[in-house]
């Protein structure tokens, strides 16, 4: 689920020394082979069960590091024009800033609570922004669109939340509803297969920024399954308030994206890759941005 946070997270191996502004991470969690992760690269909760209000802080923290992509996608929108289709919009991390910049946006998500947060954010800014936002509750695997768009977005690695069996149909549906000269932009995490087989379990800890008097740490355990090309991430959270300590576990399942297979599916849907942007995360992983146009 996408959120409006722009929080920077210091991320570290579990055995490292925590920043002085935070208590040490909990020790009663599964540690596995603890690995460091860059502060701008955390697996989000794109494919978790619909979030409740209690998970809002964790969602904001996990997707906050991706906030820099707002500028990149907004620049693309200014070249393409609107209307804009934001798929897997969550609480409006992209949709609301786009509407604030004058774009008409249809925001699609399966989580009703996230869509209500999006609408409330738009209303707080003002009626002009609220009028530019249309929300649609739908699962991306079963998406049926009713209009055409100049720009469609699958941001925040949302493509990894779509089952591989449903992905070709989703891409065909998007391609069929792009206006001439329109574009689909998406990003995903590309893993080196040898790196996954050598290190199929990765674990790290990070503080969850909160501003309500609660101190929260999360230990994330990421398990890759190459047999079905999936990954499961479990967040073991400890929240300490003035009167009590609470422990919760949240899990999300995502799909490992094979870049070659994805590009073949884009081609079959009638989309050509016009631009690629690669950002190396570490020796095993890179972030990939694709901008695709309908074939003439």
Short description:
The chain has 296 residues and is α/β, with parallel strands linked by helices. Helices cover 24% and strands 32% of the residues. The protein is globular, with a radius of gyration of 19 Å.
Could you explain how this protein is built, in words?
This protein is an alpha/beta fold and 296 residues long. The chain is built from 8 helices and 11 strands. The chain has a 7-stranded mixed beta sheet, with helices on both faces. A 4-stranded antiparallel beta sheet has the order 6-7-8-9. Strand 1 (84-87), helix 3 (95-100) and strand 2 (105-109) form a beta-alpha-beta unit. The longest helix is centred in the middle third of the chain and has 14 residues, at 112-125. It is globular.
Keywords:
alpha/beta; seven-stranded mixed beta sheet; 296 residues; four-stranded antiparallel beta sheet; 8 helices; 11 strands; globular; 24% helix
Spell the H/E element sequence. HHEHEHHEEHEHEEEEHEE
Beta-strand percent range: 25-35%
Shape: globular
Number of strands: 11
Mean pLDDT: 82
The assembly state of the depicted protein chains is single chain
Tally the helices: what do you get? 8
Low-confidence stretches: 1-23, 28-37
**Rg calc:** 19 Å
Give me the side-by-side strand order of the main sheet. 3-2-1-4-5-11-10
Fold blueprint:
Blueprint: H1 56-63, H2 69-80, E1 84-87, H3 95-100, E2 105-109, H4 112-125, H5 127-131, E3 133-137, E4 149-154, H6 167-176, E5 178-191, H7 193-198, E6 201-208, E7 215-225, E8 230-240, E9 245-255, H8 259-268, E10 271-280, E11 285-294
Parallel strand pairs: 1-2, 1-4, 2-3, 4-5
Antiparallel strand pairs: 5-11, 6-7, 7-8, 8-9, 10-11
């Amino acid at each position: 689920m996408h959120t409006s946070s722009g929080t920077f997270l210091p991320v570290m191996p579990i055995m490292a020394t925590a920043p002085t502004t935070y208590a040490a991470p909990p020790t009663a969690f599964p540690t596995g082979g603890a690995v460091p992760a860059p502060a701008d690269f955390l697996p989000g909760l794109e494919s978790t069960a619909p979030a409740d209000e209690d998970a809002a802080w964790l969602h904001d923290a996990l997707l906050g590091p991706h906030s820099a992509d707002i500028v990149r996608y907004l620049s693309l929108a200014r070249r393409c024009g609107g209307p804009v289709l934001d798929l897997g919009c969550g609480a409006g991390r992209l949709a609301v800033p786009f509407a604030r910049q004058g774009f008409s946006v249809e925001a699609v998500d399966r989580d009703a609570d996230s869509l209500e947060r999006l609408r409330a954010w738009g209303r707080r800014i003002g009626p002009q922004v609220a009028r530019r936002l249309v929300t649609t509750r739908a699962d991306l695997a079963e998406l049926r669109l009713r209009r055409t768009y100049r720009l469609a977005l699958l941001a925040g690695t949302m493509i990894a939340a779509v089952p591989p069996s449903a992905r070709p149909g989703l891409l065909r549906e998007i391609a069929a509803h792009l206006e001439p000269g329109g574009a689909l932009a998406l990003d995903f995490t590309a893993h080196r297969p040898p790196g996954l087989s050598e290190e199929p379990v990765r674990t790290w800890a990070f503080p969850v920024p909160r501003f309500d008097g609660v101190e929260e740490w999360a230990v994330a355990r990421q398990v890759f399954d190459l047999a079905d090309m999936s990954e499961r991430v479990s967040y073991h959270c400890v929240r300490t308030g003035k009167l009590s300590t609470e422990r919760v576990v949240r899990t999300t399942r995502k799909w490992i994206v094979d870049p070659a297979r994805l590009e073949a599916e884009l081609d079959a849907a009638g989309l050509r890759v016009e631009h690629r942007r690669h950002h190396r995360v570490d020796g095993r992983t890179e972030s990939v941005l694709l901008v695709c146009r309908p074939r003439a």
